[in-house]
Amino acid sequence: MIGRRQLLMGTGGLVVAGLGARAWQQGLLGGDSPALHAWDEWASQRQRGPLKLVGAAVLASSPHNTQPWAFAIGRFGVDIFEVPGRNLGTMDPFGRERLAGLGGAIHNMALATTALGRAARVRLLPDPQNPAHVARLILGPDNSGPPPHPLLPFIARRHTHRGAWRGGPVADAKLAAVQAFPAFPGVKLVLFGAGTPMGQRFAALTDDATVAITGDAVMMADSHRWFRHSHSDAKRLMDGLTLATSGVSPWLAVAGAMLPPQSAADEGKYWLASTRDTHLPTASVFGLILTPQPHDRRSALLVGSAWQRIHLNATAAGLVAQPLNQLPEMIDREAQLRSAPRFARAADALLGDPAWRPSFAFRLGVADTPAGAALRRPVSAVLGPPARLAWEVEQWKEAGGAF
Question: Is the pLDDT of residue 354 over 90?
Fold first, then answer.
C-alpha cells in the first residue's frame, strides 16, 4: 500500500507541506467527518424509541464494512432486511459473511432494547415469502424489560483493530469473559493460543488462503471495490475500508494519502504482507466460530450474532479483535468454482470433526494503541418503508389496544 519512500525523504519542507495538504484533503488530520457521526449518536444517547435500536444496529461489524442492511421501524418494533447489492461478490459467493453482518446488527439491536425498558422478542426469517426479511424485533409495553445491559456502552467502543499487537498470552479470566454469553443453537466457539500446535496450523492455513485469494484477480477486484482511497468517496459513500482503519500507523496512512489510488493487485500485496508480518505473528489467540451448515441462512445469522457478542465482550475485557476469514472465504470460493476442496479438507484436518464447519475466523489480543472508528451510514440513510400497517394493527390488538 505504501510505496515510493522518496516521497518522505530528501525534499524537505515542500514534501512536508504537500503531505499535510494531501492528508488534510484525505481526512487524516482531524476535522469533523459526517461518516463518523453514527458512533457519536449512539454514545451520546440522543436517539429515542426504535430509532435507538437502529442506531445500535448500524454500528455492528460487517464484512469489508459493506453494511448490508435496511430497516423499517414502527411503534411495536423493527424489521431488518438484507440488501443483497451490498455484497463482496466472489469473496462471499453464497452470502455467508453478508448474513453474519446482519446477525451482528440483530444482536446489537437486541442488546439495545434494554436501554428502552421494553421486553423484546426476535424472530429470524419471519417471512418465508421474502427471504430478504431476515428478522423482526418485536417490542413489548413500556417498563416491561430487563435493566440496561452492561455491554451497551461498548457498542460504540467496539472497533476492528488491523494493526500490530503485543502478542503473548492473554489472562484466562479475560478469555473466560470473552466466552461468557448464552449459547446460540447450532453454533460452537473454539479458541486456541497462537503458539499452540493448532494455532500454528491455523496461521499456516490462513497464510495459504491469503496467498490464494491475492492470486485470484476476480476476488481481489471484488474486494478492492470496497476500498475508499479518497476522502471524497469516504464522505459520500460512508462505507468500506480506508487508510485510516487499515492498521498502518497514522504517519504511514498520511504518506499513503499522498499516492494515487492503489490497484487491486497492490492491495493484495499489502494485505498478504500485513497478514504475514503483523496479523498472524502479533496475535495472542485465534478463534473459530463453527456451525454444521455455514450456508444455512439462520445459521449464518446466528454466527454473526455470536461474533458481535464475542467482539463486544472482548472490548469490555480490554482486548482487541480482528476477523481473519481467509480460510472460510477460500472454502466458499472453491465450492463456487467446483474445484478440488483443498481448503475444506485442510479445515477437516485442523478441526478433527467434519460435522462442524468453520464459518468465521478471527484473532484476539492486546494492543498499545486503540483502533479507529470505521465509516458508517447514519440511521436516516438505512431506513426503508414503514413496518407493515397490518402487523402494527395486529400487535395493537394483541395488546388490548394499549400502548
Answer: no
> Helix 297-316 vs helix 96-116: angle between axes, to the nearest 10 degrees?
60
| 3-state secondary structure at position 279 | helix
| Per-residue pLDDT band at 393 (split at 50, 70, 90) | very low
Provide the mean pLDDT of the chain: 88
Alpha helices in 262-367 (DSSP H): 264-274, 297-316, 326-337, 342-351
The single-letter DSSP state of residue 241 is B
Q: Is residue 2 part of a domain?
A: no
pLDDT at 23 over 50: no
Task: Report the alpha-carbon distance of residue 372 to residue 352 in Å, rounded.
Answer: 37
pLDDT at 142: 84
In angstroms, rounded to a whole number, what is the distance separating the alpha carbons of residues 186 and 305?
A: 12
Which cell numbers hold the place of 104?
A: 451482528
Instruction: Inform me whether the pLDDT recorded for 3 exceeds 90.
Output: no
How high is the pLDDT of residue 244?
83
User: Is 303 inside any structural domain?
Assistant: yes
CA angle 377, 213, 300 (to 5 degrees): 55
* Residue linked to cell 394499549: 402
Which of 43-52, 74-83, 86-95 shows the highest mean pLDDT?
86-95
CATH code for the domain in which residue 154 is found: 3.40.109.10
CB-count burial class (<10 Å; 0-12, 13-18, 19+) for 398: exposed
Q: How confident is the model at residue 141, as a pLDDT?
A: 87
Q: Which 3-state string (H, E, C) describes 73-114?
A: EECCEEEEEECCCCCCHHHCCCCHHHHHHHHHHHHHHHHHHH
The residues, ordered by sequence, that sit 6+ positions from 192 with a Cβ below 8 Å of its Cβ are 198, 199, 202, 285, 286, 287
Average pLDDT over residues 182-186: 93
Residue 12 belongs to a domain: no
What's the full length of the chain, in residues? 403
Q: Is residue 21 part of a domain?
A: no
Would you list the DSSP string of 113-126? HHHHT--EEEEES-
Residue 332, SS3 per DSSP: helix
Coil, helix or strand at residue 365: strand
Asked whether the beta carbons of 332 and 93 are under 8 A apart, the reply is yes
Query: How many structural domains comprise the chain?
Result: 1
Question: What is the residue range of 365's domain?
Answer: 29-393
What is the predicted pLDDT for the residue at 232?
Answer: 86
Q: What pLDDT is recorded for position 98?
A: 98
